[in-house]
Each structure stands twice: as C-alpha cells, then as structure tokens.
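Journal club side-thread
Mid-discussion, someone asked how the predicted structure for our own chain would compare to the paper's figures. Pasting it here so we can look after the session.
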Amino acid sequence: MNIQINNDNNAPIGQAVTFSLMKGDLVHILHPEQIVAYRGPSNGRNDRFMNMKRMYRKRKIIQSDMTGPSQFVAALPPGFAMQPIDINEGSDLLYDFRSLFYFSDGITMQTRILSMKNILVTHDIIKVKFSGTGQIGILTQGPVCQTELHPTEPVYIDAGSLIAYPENANLELTVYGNTLASQRMNYHWKMTGKGTVLYQAGRQNRQLEKDMENDGFIKRVLREIIPFGNVFIK
C-alpha cells in the first residue's frame, strides 16, 4: 500500500490523501464518506456495519473495507491532517480511537479503560492499543511531534494535544508554572516513564487566531486576570 498526502499548507480547503493498493492489500476506512474518487473493480469496496464497540467509540455506523488493486482519494476538511504510523510487534502505545481514520489488515485492537478521575477531566473513557504488523492513520490538527520520556524528569503535554503514549507511562493531570500561568492553561499530562509520547502541534491555532482578531480589550483582560478565564470566557 502506498499513501500520498497533499501537504499544501497554504490551501485553506483541506487535504487530499491518495491510497494506492496492490493486489492482496486490504485497508479498513472508518470514515468512508470522505472517499471522493475511486478507481478499480466495483467489488473492491465492501461497506459493512461496525461492531457495537466501534460504533460507540466512533459515533459512526459504517466502515469500508478496500481491497487492491485499486486507488482512491479521501478528502479531509480544513484544520485536519492525517499521519500514517507504522505498527510493529511489541508496540505499547495507547491511542484515542476517535482519531483513527484507517488501519491495515493484520492490525488488532485492545481497549484500556481510564481511571474515573481522568474520565471526568478528559471526557474520554478508553484508549486503544494496537498490536500486530501494519499501519494506521491518525487524524490530527497539525504536525505530529514526539518526545522521549524520562523515568524521573517529567514532560508536560497539553491534554487535548496528546495522541499516544506508552501503556506503562506514569500520567498525572495537572498544570504547571506560577499562579498566573497555571490559571490560564489547559490541563496537561505530567508524564514520566520509558518510551516515546506523540502529540499534535496545531490544536492551539484557533486560540492564536482569536487572539489576533479584534476581540475587545475588556474581554481579553478578563481572560487574563480571572482564574481559568481563557476556559470560561469565549
């Protein structure tokens, strides 16, 4: 399978992703309504109902199983990009299933339930661990970055920007910095352990766009001086 991504960052109309499948390739698309062009035999696309667990996690009903030889193009809306990630035996990263766009044949999934405290803060119940050998595609809101974890020196990752982290990493929801800094920021994951953490570097773009607009001086001041004002004052 070959994937070509249109990386025209100056285009405000979204991103196009071209999948070229060879004979014997099989890929599962979890957002089939984004497929805008297809070339191949008519029976190369097989839509089916997701199982109940996937329906609940994705808030969707149908997935498409695409086989080769064929080629198709998926369109992503503005603000979203897709990042292919290779999965190998022994991978221990946990992902948010909602951000999964596709996975190749040979990939299996296991669920991990978060603690009640983390569920209440993140509004996320489970994470997914992928095993086997193949590839997945993750939807992001910007470039994907990675940072190596340290056993004792923590790294703080914006909770909404986190993509994946090692299953055995130590996580604590917190804020950091002085009083003003901690009152203004979103919750962060304080993380230690071994392995690599993946996160997206584009989620804050909308906030920057708002800051650059003529938003009203009083409202901007209130965001700064009221504890967590950037969260409650939109």
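Post-session note: The mean pLDDT is 82.
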